[in-house]
Amino acid sequence: MSNYKIEEVDFSSLDTNTHISIITAEFNAEYTQALTQINEDFLKEKWFYNIDIYQVPGALEIPGLSHKILKNKKTDLIL
Question: Residue 47 has what DSSP assignment?
Fold first, then answer.
């Protein structure tokens, strides 16, 4: 069995005005919605509030939406 170390990362040097987009597939919503909520809560805990959440039908649509968002320069980071 592998040994994993969880280390706290210091986010204080990052710009909290960073525009973050979270893309979630609707397929397996029980899991994907929970992961989206966990990520959103974590980001807000670290003072990142400029968050957009997008939903697509399945995982195959995620790259297309990512490309569209980046092409329109509407975000700094995609999860």
Answer: T
